[in-house]
Amino acid sequence: MKSVRGGKLSALIFIIIGLTLLANCSQEDKPLEINLEKKEPSGFVERRRQEKPVRIAIGGMITPKEGFAYYRNFLDYVGEKLKRHVELVDRESYSEVNNLLKRGDIEAAFVCGGPYVNGHREFGMELLAAPVAYGGTVYYSYIIVAKDSPISSFRQLRGKSFAFTDPLSNSGKLAPTYMLAMMNESPDSFFRTYIYTRTHDNSIKAVAQGIVDGAAVDSLIWEYDARTNPVHTSKTKIIRKSPPYGIPPVVVRPGLDPALKEAMRKIFLEAHDDIRGREILKNMMIDRFVPIDNSAYDSIREMKAWIEKHASGEKP
Fold first, then answer.
1. Which residues pair with 146 in a beta bridge?
2. Which of 20, 139, 147, 277 has the highest Cβ tally under 10 A?
3. What's the mean pLDDT in 71-88?
4. Strand-pair category, 138-139 with 141-146
């Protein structure tokens, strides 16, 4: 009798609990009302915008391997000032970097004067700032040979092997090609053979190790190596120095958000006034960044035009 009552009581409790759960479920299963007109808070939108990285390209053409870490540190510094993640994009050639800028796949890049002239003409690449290095905003093309080589002039490289860096490089290709054109020569007619090493420190190494007889290199990179790690530069000597050219600039793609462009420019131009920024620049062998005008690269344009006329048979 006791067990029967207990069973009935248990069943009653079970029914009550079940009805309660059903009631709750019927309330909770009602569809949620969503206001599609409601906008996200402005702070949330800003955070989402900041999640998109600012992509800046730096290639081995611009800095030797030993200096690459300092450029990475500088981009981290820029990101901290922007309060946005800055992504370093590494490419092996100037044409790749120019194509990324042209397509809008990156926001900015450290480039050479030659690629800037090409990019400005072809798709409106814009200057952001330029470094002051070794006291100026110019650099040179150095023609180098081995330290113990009997060669002492550029003309004596006739019939020898030679290293260019990148096909679009000013100091590593355009300037020496112009020197040859002024002699009524071309790389094909003058050198026995020539190669492209892709980076200036590779060209320095190729001469130091006797792989080639001579090379054309960026003065900034040769001087950087000579001051910080002269293991290869000490085995080379400079036999010719070109006229000065506008220093390799920092550029941005056309159509970049004006507010972002000006914020980046401000960070670059004021980095030397900041203790941490100044220390990073010192390691990069850069005094500071300054504004630079498009006309600073006119001499490169003139060389390109002269070479094109000479190659076509026109009188320059």
1. 236
2. 139
3. 96
4. unpaired
Give domain limits for the chain.
50-137+247-296, 139-245
Task: Give dist(CA 245, CA 263) in Å, integer.
Answer: 28
Share the mean pLDDT of the chain. Answer: 86
Q: Domain 139-245: give its CATH code.
A: 3.40.190.10
What homologous superfamily is domain 50-137+247-296 in, according to CATH?
Answer: Periplasmic binding protein-like II (3.40.190.10)
Strands 161-164 and 108-110: unpaired
Fill in the amino acid letter for 134: Y
**Whole-number pLDDT of residue 310:** 75
Does the structure show a pLDDT above 80 at 60?
A: no
Do the first three CATH levels of 50-137+247-296 and 139-245 match, i.e. the same topology? yes
DSSP, residue by residue, 54-109: EEEE--TTTS-HHHHHHHHHHHHHHHHHHTS-EEEE--SSHHHHHHHHHHTS-SEE
Q: β-strands 54-57, 86-89: how paired?
A: parallel
